[in-house]
User: What shape does this take?
Amino acid sequence: MRRQLKKIMALMLTAAMGTAITGCGSSGGGGTTRAAGEGTTAAEAAKTETTAASVQGDGEKTQTPAEDAAKEPVTIRFSWWGGDSRHEATEKLVAAFMEKYPYITVETEYGAWTGWEEKQSLSILSGECADVMQIGTNWVTDYSRGGTSYYDLYQLADIIDLTQFPEDKMKLNQVDGKLMAIPNSLTGRLFYWNKTTFDEVGCPIPTDEESLLAAGAAFKAYNEEYYPLALGEYDRIIFMVYYLESKYGKDWVTDGKMNYTEEEIAEGFAFMNKLEDEHVIPSIATISGDMADSLDKNSKWIDGKYAGIMEWDSAVVKVRDAMMDSVNKPGQEFVIGEFIKFGEYQGGFTKISMNMAIKANTEHPTEAAMLVNYLMNDPEGVEINSTERGIPCSAAAVAYLNEKNIGDAMTKEANAKVLAYSRFTQDPKFDDNDLKANPDGLYYKLFGRLSSRDITPEQAAADLVKGVTQVLEDQ
Assistant: This one.
């Protein structure tokens, strides 16, 4: 709690200095804040089939147009992060929702992931955030203030059909017996490749350690600006844990305790150095010099110089479309790869990719819950949202998508691969802001210093164990 109080005080100080956001959704750096549906007609947004019956618990389904017209106007705010395709789909969903319930106005606030959590955390802790929020897994514990930041969704079960969601996953979002959020989808990381570049270089797409290192040598011989794989700082901690899980067959954390020794973790850090030395991945300095917020926006990925990414299964559309929209190198072939074998175990973890929550002090809990249920369970909303937030956890949503054959085929393929292969579960504290924040989180600091050779793998391991343990103990 002491660390959490320090975090809150630091955030308040930042606000006093004028650098904090106003509310929850000021989205500097490319995001927008505006009334939903701007630039999109309701008719275009609502062109969806609605022949399937409404799911149970759809508390708003008994309202008539006349009843809606007699209601006092209500305005709620909805915030999320994502790529352009998610923004577009969600704006259309909101427009269709407002056409269905004309007395409700939804103001939308969104942006890219980079810096999003930092911008949102203060407004959540101050109670000034959006009424409906897409939140990360660690936000449930990091910003719930003992279950007081978010509305207890069990109290809205007459509107949101909670029976559609896996009970074990919902329990992960409980604080003091209250349901802080609903899981939107399960996700994990896997490998995406630019087959066109691999064909040009003349080497196969990697499937094990030997072929991965061989690819590094082949790419270096072809052109020193080309790399078979690119990993940012957060990507590197996920990759390193995947490597260690593949070798040792242990969860990273179990019951709030780390399962790996400093010696084992130092081995992982040393392997990351080896990947740089063998020209498998570019240095952090090289990636930083590319001046891109994320790898999918990096011109070297878009134009095929970085030929591989380890990304979430729900990010297929974002990374694929960025590469395939290349002006300098059109017609590239994007493929989903196999999991790289580093040992006898199947490494990699799954997690709840994101949640939907309602702020505790919302003035309109009914309307906020109606929007959540529309997005997650209602056939019309499910069709518009499709697989933009991954393969849904809602059984009703999955059934409808399958019945109508809706959704991105590659997203479905990637999710199926992850769920079939990965054997481990990510601890919610893995994404704690003290660890993950860019650029001040521990992951970013350690991998930056390791890449520049300012610290040894042994020093990095000792610092990582100390930092992660501190976060785990601050429950």
Summary: The longest strand covers residues 182-194. DSSP finds 21 helices and 13 strands in the chain. The two ends are 7 Å apart (CA to CA). Confidence is low (pLDDT under 50) at residues 8-62.
